[in-house]
Structure formats: structure tokens, C-alpha cells
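Q: I'm writing a short explainer about Wax synthase domain-containing protein for a general audience and would like to include a description of its predicted shape. Could you first generate the structure from this sequence?
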Amino acid sequence: MHPILYLVFQLILTVFITGFTQPDSRLRPIGLVGSTLCVVQCIPLCMTYMVRVPWAALVGGYSVTHLYHYLDIVLLSRWSFLHNAPVSGLVRPSPSPKSNDEVPAENKKATGEDTFLARLLFGLKLTASFRFVGTLYEVRNTPRAVIVKRGDRTYFLWRTFATIAISYAFLDAISVMNDPAIASKYLDLDKIPLLFRLHEVTAEEILVRAFTVLAAGIGLNCVQGGLYNVFALLGVAIHVSEPKDWPPFYGSPQDAYTLTSFWNVFWHQINARKFSSISHYTVHQLFHLPRGTLVARYLRILVAFLSSGVMHLIDDFASGIRFGNSGAMRFFLTQGLGMVVEDIIIKFYHSSTITMPRLMEKSIGYLWVSLFLIWSVPAYMYPIMWRANLGLNDSTVPFSFFESSAERVKAFTCLLCAVAVGLCGSLFS
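A: Of course. Here's the predicted structure. Afterward I'll give you a sentence or two in plain language.
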């Protein structure tokens, strides 16, 4: 069976378990078994059916992500239809709640009418909500939606279309610029270690490494943000959602001057609630560590990144990467350890008599984050690039503007379809 069908079954299972069962229902842990079985069936089939690594990674990644999402909303946070809120106490409302006028009506009180349709919509909303936008439980550091009072919908549709087109063009260009000869020389697995090879590392290798890390970051931004904007364009165009429901996928790069702000503010927060729930449950309910201590805080960071490492390790396997070659666990645990070390250094700096202008602090911070990522990202990215490094077609975009005329026609057709969606949406807005 096609792996996408297993993913669809996962979504349907999550919708009905969330909407039609009580928080203490025995069906909820049984549903976790069902969702896990879907992942087990889906992951090995991804490369066979999806052919290219980025496409396999998307299907496999969303499958394991929804397994984590099920674990969070159904078993850990334990969202309840009757309360229209999580009832486990693991998730708390925003510490800075919106004013009463700003809080959506459905979040001011428990759910009213108990009907099949109401429960179905509740399940659909929760299944599709990773950042819980517009609720009292919205993920912290979710960017604010761009709101324009006049022509808001039309402006949103065209801005979203422009973002999709730019993302497509960047992904196409990154794929075309791949040079298998350079890749085989500098982007192999034996080039991942850096500190122990400093005596043999050339300036050219450092430059290629830095450019590869930058291109990987832009590529991930374009893939994840681009796909997010495709759904945003469709949702707003057919009037099933509003522009305010689609805040930017990423934060501002201006905030990425520490590892903590890079991961907690700039990077997308789609998985933040899942990892937070797992880490809080592990540290405070399994290990019974008190809140408010440095040990508990640092352990939560490590557990969160360990959870992320497991998620991406499974995603790597879906992409055809053997567990032994995957750098997911190494990379994400390194980020967690880096954040802990960074926090200790910042605390020491603030307690010392050393003072620097804010601009200098941020400049040092940007340099630190850049060097840390150039050092650490290849552990995760180089194994993923195995097909592209062999010269195989592993582009994320299905059709290229830089290939044959037939390919260009197909690429322009894809963009014209997006323009048609935007036009229809603006005409009926």
C-alpha cells in the first residue's frame, strides 16, 4: 500500500480519537498503537514509492511527526472536547493571555453543543494544529500574523503566492548548482569531523562547508515554509480559514544571535509543543524533579533534543539512510548540549564585571551561532545528500526552469495553477 495512505489513516485516526473519546478512554492508548503501526508500515515504503530523498523525507517526516502529535494531544496534554482544552495540567495557558476581546469565543468557555459535527470539527482542528494559533494555548514565540485592514484576504493571497514562487525558484537553483565532483571531494561522510582534521582542512573546504550549511538552511526554509504557504493559499482561497490563522512559518533571523533564540524564536515552532510536553512529562512526572531548578531546565532541554533526534532518525530511515550513517541523534544532542553550555557562559558573563555594548554582544552571538552551525550541521546534512552527491536527480521541485523546454513549461504550469487559486480566492473575497 502507498505510504501516503498510511499517513491519511493516521490523520483520520487522530481526528476521531481526539474528537470522540474522553481523556481517560482506553481507546486513546489503543489509538497510539494503531498510529505507531501506520508509521512502521509507512517508513520503509517511502523511498520505494516517492523515489527522491526530499519527497520520501516529507512523507516519512509527516508520518512520524503526527505520531508525536498524537502522543501529545491525546495522551500527554489530553485535550478534551467537553472542556475545549488540555486537562492533564501538563500544558498551561499563555502566561500573558490576550484580552477578553482578543480571545476567540470558543476558548472562553467549554464547548457548547455536543453534536457529531462539532466533535468532528474539534478533532480536525486539533489534528491540524501544531502551534495552536489563536488559542489560549498558542505555542510561545509563534510569529504574529501580518494583518492588513483593507483588502486583507487579497493581499494575503498574493503575498503567499509570491512566497511560494520564490521558494520554488530557490529550491530549483540550489538543485542546479549541485556539483557532484565538489560534493564527492568535500561533502563525504569522512569530512564531517572538523576539529580533529584542522591540520588538513583547506580554506576551500571551509568555504564549501559554510556555503552548504547556508544552502541547506535556505532549502529547508523553502521546503517547509513553501509547503506551509501552499496550504495557507488553499485554505484562505476556499474560505475555510482566515489570514490571521496563518502567521509566518519562521521567526526573524535577527533573533538568531544565540543558539537558544535560534531554535526557540527564529526556527519554526511546529514541533515545539510536542517536545515540550515530552520533556516536561519525563522530567517532572517520571523523574519527579521539582520545577524551577537549573538541573530540571537543562534536563528538559536535553530530553527535548533527544526526542527531536529520534524523530529525525526515523525520518532519515524513510529517506533511505541506514541508521548507522544517520547523523540525526548526534546533531540534535549536540544542539542541546550547545544550548546548555551557552546558557552557563551567558550566566557567567552577566554575573561578571565585564560589559560590552549591545551591538557587540549581538555581533559575537551571530558569529558564535554561525561557527557552531558550520561545525555541527554537516553531521546531519551530509548523509542526507547521498543521492545528490552521486549525480542523481534528487531535486525537491518536480520540474525545473533550468532544464529542457518541456520541463520549463511544466514548471510555469505549476505556478499558473497557484496564480489561478489566488485569483479565484481574491475574486470571491
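A: For your explainer, you could say: Strands lie at 79-80, 85-86.
Q: Perfect, that's easy to follow.
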